Amino acid sequence: MSEQIRVRFAPSPTGPFHIGGARSALFNWLFARKYPDGKFVLRIEDTDQARSSRESEENIKKALKWLGITWDEGIDVGGEYGPYRQMERLDIYKKYAQKLVDEGKAYYCYCTEDEINAEREALKKQNKMPLYQGHCRNLTPEQIEAYKKEGRKPTIRFRTPENQTVEFNDMIRGHMSFDSNGIGDFVIVKADGVPVYNFAVVIDDALMKITHVIRAEEHLSNTPRQAVLYQALGFEMPTFAHISLILGEDHTKMSKRHGATSVEQYKKLGYLPEALVNFLALLGWAPQDEKEIFSLDELIEAFSMDHVAKNPAVFDINKLNWLNAQYMKKLSSEEITMMAIPHLVEKNYLVKAIPQDEMKKLVKFTSVIRDHLSYGAQYLDYADLFFNDDVKIENTEAENIMHDETVEPVITAFKEKLAHIETFDAEHIHPIFKEIIKGLKVGGKKVYMPLRIAITGQMHGPDLAGLIEVIGHDRVIKRIEKIMASLQ
Ligand code: GLU
């Protein structure tokens, strides 16, 4: 029988859910889903009590569900290897820490933080590695007694074996090896009894029978410590895969400076989960053909850790916008309008419930502008076209166009024709432009541009006939008259 594939996503609930975390979750999930009985576990690493919150945990769960990433075991759903929140597992860590102490593989360390910091600073000044120098490695019972009397609370420190080569295999980076002398003795349980990440993660991954640890590259430097702990505890090491960093377009580490960084922000901006998942999958993983649009099912089928790149992935917002636009094409104008409504409310374009006929118009307006939208919040760039009759000419170039001698006759002809139109819709408005071109013997630009500017203030934009239809006859005329008056 082949081994059951078990992976986990183990976020620390310490703030907004970063898209890098979502990508790690996705890669794990895709990897698990490739196997009929593969399992994806969600574990919460909340040992940093000062920074962890239930609110952040809730956000992570909500974001994962929104993206379509479901977990087979973990918080909320339970499972054979729970509890799945680290702060609920303290007894387990304690037991293993004690085992290491009993076997002489770990020891109580009574050094204070100040002492440790001073030692570190001194070593740095001498250009030496700031590793613990082993003060408490071999304390006598008398020394221990004395420290206890002073009221010092000990940490538990791992006795890292010296002069060893620490090795592990990384699915992305290949064979990795480190010198154990570069690790030094490190704390595994803090003075308050809470384990540090490197200790808890090893115990959890081992007890939860995790077969593959797929996580961000920034944890690569932790892996040697984890490797020596696996050895000391007699646990079998999982296979590791460290996925590369996500860089901003300027090739520095992705951060707030680069714009939105959390899943929540992208959701709020009106990106679709299918598009974000598709985009995240392509951040580091390269499909084997030209295909770029993948549903979750297609991703499961096509994804392979063999084609996850070693070099950093660059977050290309234009690509995300393009992908999102592709997915938006599949939505109805009603659906896109619903996406836009919270944004319109936030910016006071909508202040009360919209009556049904207004809603119909708004949906119609959506159908006119939708091809220009890459994500929901972009609706706001176009909202004035529909909501704001206080039109202003956008710049002097547009203003100059309006001073051309053909403008007046074009506007007059347009108003005249609009007044006698058979049906007031885009289909019947379109031919009017052509008729004016013919009647006045002017080029198309001399008709479209001034009319567009007179109605919207802008030189370019969505289909003019469609806009005129949704704005309606009276408002269009009012806008034109206002702009024309402003030119005198
Ligand atoms: N709690 C760690 C983090 O959020 C996870 C590390 C791991 O996957 O091993 O970065």
Structure description:
The chain is mostly helical and 488 residues long. Helices cover 46% and strands 10% of the residues. It is built from 20 helices and twelve strands. A three-stranded parallel beta sheet has the order 1-2-3. A three-stranded antiparallel beta sheet has the order 4-5-8. Strand 9 (212-216), helix 7 (223-233) and strand 10 form a beta-alpha-beta unit. Helix 9 (273-281) crosses helix 11, helix 16 (407-419) packs across helix 18 and helix 17 crosses helix 19 (464-471). The longest helix has 15 residues, at 19-33. 34% of the residues are buried. The mean pLDDT is 96. The chain binds glutamic acid. Glutamic acid binds at residues 10-12, 45, 201, 215, 219.
Annotation keywords:
binds glutamic acid; three-stranded antiparallel β-sheet; 488 residues; mainly alpha; elongated
Blueprint of the fold:
Blueprint: E1 6-9, H1 19-33, E2 39-42, H2 54-67, E3 73-74, H3 90-102, E4 106-109, H4 113-125, H5 141-150, E5 155-158, E6 165-170, E7 174-179, E8 186-189, H6 197-207, E9 212-216, H7 223-233, E10 239-243, E11 246-247, H8 263-268, H9 273-281, H10 296-302, E12 313-314, H11 317-328, H12 333-346, H13 356-369, H14 380-387, H15 396-401, H16 407-419, H17 426-440, H18 445-456, H19 464-471, H20 473-487
Parallel strand pairs: 1-2, 2-3, 9-10, 11-12
Antiparallel strand pairs: 4-5, 5-8, 6-7
